[in-house]
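Worked Example 4.2. Read the sequence first, then its structure tokens.
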Amino acid sequence: MISTTVPVTTPTRPCNYWIVLLFSLVTLGTVIGVPIYAYFFDYSWVDWAMFGFLYAVTAMGITVGYHRLIAHRSFNCSNWVKGCLLIAGGWALENSALKWASAHIRHHARCDQDEDPYNAQRGFWYSHVGWIFFKDPLSYDEKYTSRLRQDPVVLWQHRYYVPIVLSGLALPFVVGFLYNGWIGGFGCFLLAGVGRTFCVLNSTFCINSICHIWGTQPHTTADSSRDSWVVSLLTFGEGYHNYHHAHQRDFRNGPRWYNFDPSKWLIYGLSLAGLAWDLCRVEPERTRFAS
């Protein structure tokens, strides 16, 4: 019997050479430039302090700002708080909030399908980093961007995304320069600018790859999402990905008090200070927040 089934093929997308070049520069600067500088000059406590500070700020700019606020509307806040979160997210070099959130909304809507921008069914390396090297014809799809385009702060950040990125790289240079001159500025730029960017990028990529391939599925088996407490340590709570896919609008990815989720603690802290409100949570009458 001759099969009449038509094979499903994923359309070929053109390579984005600018992204390939940019990611290559960040990678080479981290794996070659950072250790070479350490060998000849060593890093000061200021360099390491800036690395830790900017890692936390930029990572939570993504988790709290891009992800839970813009993509999922897990809480509300004033425009100036939103603007600060989107500046911090922009420093992570993960595209503007408009493009990031629209891709993430599509990821949830079409998870594990061809339209999923970081489809884990195509393998670990594709979902981890390979997907960024190709142009996405759906990046401005009205279906996924219409709500985002109604937000003036999102449009502002999208318009000034490049200056925001550059300011995030200039900040560690200026701090290092003020502490130890030109050599100090270059070292802080390498470690807290380039190296930190590489680390934040790859920790975020782990959610797309590891948390769709390895881990547990205690909350839903509707897609490939999985929980990984190890990834949560790197991503400030985003590793509880299976829970997140089951309850997308919950401001907590780790719902239990003992789940390591600093992003939920920051959001809750903002609410206590009157800077955030309308925090969404699953079954609030049965699940009492305890941080």
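Now turn to a second chain, presented in exactly the same format:
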Amino acid sequence: MPFYQKRGKIPQKKHTAFRDGNKNLFWEELISRNGFSHMYSNVYHINPPTAVKNLGSKTKNEIHVIEKINKHYHLKTSNIQSKGNAVSARKTLFLNTDLVISKCHVDRSMDTLYKNAYADELLFISSGDGTLQTNFGSFDIVYGDYVVIPRGVIWKMKINSPLKVLVIESKEPIETPERYRNKFGQLLEHSPYTERDIITPQNDEPTLEKNTLIDVKYGECFQSYEYQNHPFDIIGWDGYYYPWKLNIKDFMPITGKIHQPPPVHQTFQSKGFVVCSFVPRLYDYHKNSIPAPYAHSNVDSEEIIYYVDGKFMSRKGVEPESITYHPMGLTHGPQPGKIEESIGAKETNEFAVMIDTFKPVHLTTDSQKVEDEKYIYSWSS
């Protein structure tokens, strides 16, 4: 879980009169989960954060679901026809009642602020770089970053070079794995990453612009609002609720004498799915170990892997930005020759992101456009 942070100027006590040099009150805003019973932050605005000047248009983001054949899928997402900013460029590939998975090829910065009201977002940056600007401050984003943006955070992205981004929108909070935390929430000694690896926003000067547009996403709909004051007019905040990032290169893999199962690679959890990171690591060291994973029948989960970089040991025909999807009810595993080929190997240099969902996912017309239809036959000798 995130840890306590403080930025800028705040009063000694919450909910007390806090004034500027001219005796004007600052405006306190509480941003909290589960009403008043969970994680929260208190932020302090120069101007009222509630002043809506104009109600803008409402639009719907149409997602077209296809009738899925229960088979193994390979999507070559580098071929997706996508352009725009970090919101408009999204092409939805998978979805269920817990999450939406999209890919976007970002070639321009955002002009308008954005807030997702119904979902936490996890952005994985597989190429490019830029800056994430939020109401809690800003940080740079680079290749390999996982960016966690809790719902309600207001942000926009400035790009320095075009980005390729894998996006997960989650109905429930995206958290650090519970088994890697002690009872105080601190990451344990044997966790594959620690608080030192987590980057939180740096403090920015308050923005005093007027008449600011914010696009707010409610499920499949976007509602535009024009506010009298800019939401980044914040002079200070403190708490546990804010955006943060972790780079996949800072994930320290857990290895063993024989093959370790995917849960040792877990990086995030939510109620309906987990996210794992496959990173360069030494292979198993038993004299007869088989580094390649064994065949596996998914009976309670669906496996989606986004291949980022390196040589992918257990698959042939995949490339950077490939996605494989192995649904419930079908056995999957290394393709012919890959098990024998792995014996005696000492290490792997792959980077990949795995999403295991606990409910079946739907595919879309956008995923259908980049499907490698021969993949289902790639286990045949």
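Notes for the reader: DSSP finds two helices and 26 strands in the chain. Residues 28-65+81-248 form a domain with the Jelly Rolls fold (CATH 2.60.120.10).
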